[in-house]
Amino acid sequence: MERVCFQLQVKVERIEEYKQRHAAVWPDMLRALAETGWHNYSLFLRPDGVLIGYVETPSIEAAQAGMAATEVNARWQAEMAEFFEDLDGIAPDEGFLRLEEVFHLEDQLGRP
Questions:
Q1: Nearest to residue 49, comparing CAs of 22, 11, 79?
Q2: Cα–Cα distance, 73 to 1 (Å, whole number)
């Protein structure tokens, strides 16, 4: 499994609504994420709007392509785009900044 961590910036004035939307994600969106390889997917939000996402997937490229092929993702991304800064017309699920993994406990524990 590939572990992917990413960052986006939520507009500070939209944080509460963003949290409300994610407290009740559409059931068809949840199913699409699970079916396209988004596992152990979590979002973390700081009070200043910095959003950190984490997902485990066999391939982030395949997971993104799978979601891009769904109608529900197009609707969700269109609605969510207005919550973010600095995307310049790119969908949030394609415009995130991927963070480099520099430590993983299990990897180091498994070393000889």
A1: 11
A2: 23
Which residues does the annotation mark as catalytic? 22
pTM above 0.70?
A: yes
Three-state DSSP class for 28? helix
The answer to whether residue 60 scores a pLDDT higher than 90 is yes
Coil/strand/helix, residue 77: helix
Domains of the chain are 2-109 (3.30.70.100)
- Residue type at 111? R
pLDDT, one tens digit per residue, over 2-20 is 999 999 999 999 999 999 9
| Distances, alpha carbon 7 to alpha carbons 26, 27, 85, in Å | 22, 24, 11
